[in-house]
Amino acid sequence: MTRWGEPFRESDALATAEVVDQAQIAIVVIDRFSLLRYWNPYARELFGFVDGRDYVGMSLLDIGIHESDREHASQLARRVLRGEPWEGTFAVLKGDATWIHVRAQAVPMLDEAGEVDGIALIAREALRSGRVEEQYGLLERIGSRLAGSLELDSTVKGVAGILVPQFADHCFIDLYDHERLVRQVSVHAEGWEPPPRTWYEVGDEVRYPERHFVTQSLRRLETVVSSEHLYESSPNDRSDRVSRQVGVTSAIAAPLRARGEVLGVLTLALSGLSPRQKSSYGGFDRDLVGAIASRVALAIDNARLYEEERGTALAFQKSLLPSDFPTLDGLTLAHRYLPAGPINGRGLQAQVGGDFYDAIPLSAGRVGLVIGDVEGRGPHAAAVMGQLRAALRAFAQADREPADILRELDEWVRRLGIPDGNGGVWIPSVSCLYMVYDAWSRELSYANAGHAPPLLVTSDSVETLDLEVTDRMLGVRAKGGSGEDIVYHQADLRLPIGATLVMYTDGLVDRRPVGGEPDPEGALVRLKERVSEVADKDVEQIAEAAVYSVPGELEDDTALLVVRTHSEELALREGWFPSEASTVGAARHLAADTFKEWGVDRDQAELACLLVSEIVTNVVIHATPHPVHREFTGAGVLDSESPLSSNGGGADEFDEDWSDLLEAVAEEDESSEDPAEKEFLLRLRRGANAIWVEVFDHDLRLPRIRSAAADDEGGRGLYLVEQLASRWGSRPTPDGKAVWFEMPMHADGSEGTDGDAREEPERAAER
């Protein structure tokens, strides 16, 4: 070997094979069928060939090219075999299970006739030169940013914020929305913004010319650097003019591809906005942007999948909860539902849950209020919640007592258990507070299955409502218990005038502060303080203040129901009457005078008085002061003899088939030793737009509608009530029953008042 600077002597020349063997770059030869024919020692090291394994004749794809880039490699072979050179980057999985990015250049090999006979591939590991190693910090920060977000907007904006201004003066991310390419991000250095209607803005559909470098990148599915002819293919003259003014010198476009689908394109550009040592991008920059684009594409795809799951979960959850409530007399409502956020990488499972709320219109203007929480998270908890809420609403609308409803729900929850994998059944525990509120009396009847009491907000204070009874959660049994030990109690209380209730689930006070542990007691104090600050505001402002009163992460979903009571436009009148024929007219006159005083529409008042006569007549004929005792016999179930029993004490079925009508009642009154024992209560209620009539008696039997024959003199009373009232029904009371109906105060809101319906009550009045 001669000294440095002296020419080679022929004897010092190295053989070609020796040069290739010592080259610190991989050289691979592939035939026309993409099969391996030769590789040098560095190629074995770069691709991680397993020692002792013969790779001759194996496919190019079998040297470890990552599955996501196999189509990329196939395109390489097809293009080079057509006689065109190719350059690009692959992800390669080495034999030791590690993976690297490999930058490759491929050129066609020609035979003596000039035909393409194979491919020569020259490769090196990307991101290895000193120049690019300076950008490792950039790549790491982008990786950390992508790993910390599952939301699409924050993901793409975060990446752009890192790339500008460290690596580029301009960053654009365009994503496909079906067939349209839409700009999602447009970020520029030094706070510069392009003039309106020049460069595409966020939300605009982007259309690149056919010869534009971005179009070429999307067509070739490879990263393209453009430093020359940048202005020749501008989308329009205004864009070209702004590009020249800002001094764009170089640009890179990298397709965003994940799981075999092209999601969009990432475009970076250098200009005169910020001082730099370089004014154009090179091959190493292209490698770096290609690696960044691969990670960004995967993060975007994950974010889209997450948001799709999130949308599905929230739609499922919201479909199970009421979106709005009807107008309720004496109450103003506001409600909120907050899903849990993703925790420790758990997305969908952490969001959906079993928190629920409801406000259920009941008979005579009363309202059922409920708040509850099903144990656990995920679709199963939400499904249990949906079934439980539907069952509760059905029980409530049947006017069951709160304690009876919780007892039924406890059994219902036990039917919703699932196998626990150990031969047993996992039954969710459910907390539930159910209350029935009467706005006219301000009385609240409730039963509580282990739920936190609501806040009572008055003009003077915000305190926890003192609940006298709190029983075990639904679905929970005492250890070794058979279930008979479960008893749900009921209690009553009266709310102050103008009181507000804040009903909530434990997710509101169990939030985890950043770097700390949940503190429910301290959170409850903060909740009370924040609610007291807005106690004189409307219910929407109270609800908004409550849900954001406690800082921290939402580890559990949260339901909130704010209920404000008021007595405007409410009125009540009632009277006790003996169950005698002569009192039917007195009850009707009380109703007529009351409706006139309340300003009820004349036609509606007459119609309501007719229906009052019908249900009062039912009470006078059928009501008894004595409890009905039932006996199980071989002939069936027989009721004890009642004062109006016509068969001397057989089965006495409540119906409207009375032939003697009120004459029989008058005879019974004359023969009764204590007719004053038989009495009923007529209660009239007025709301904002409706009136309710209730008749209470001591008979335990609930009325039913019967079909009257053409020649029957009676039996049509309840049929008329059903046809002419907006709603009607009956419910048991502790000492009997109540029959009620509802009517609008004005005829334009009534139903069933057409000509045929009006003729029927007139005939009934004649009867």
Automatic annotation (TrEMBL):
It comes from Nocardiopsis alba. NCBIfam families: sensory_box (TIGR00229). Residues 338-565 form the PPM-type phosphatase domain. Residues 745-767 are annotated as: Disordered. Keywords: Hydrolase. Residues 14-82 form the PAS domain. This is SpoIIE family protein phosphatase. Residues 151-310 form the GAF domain. The keyword Hydrolase applies. InterPro entries: Bact_Sigma-Reg, GAF, GAF-like_dom_sf, HATPase_C_sf, PAS, PAS-like_dom_sf, PAS_fold, PPM-type-like_dom_sf. Residues 755-767 have a biased composition (Basic and acidic residues).
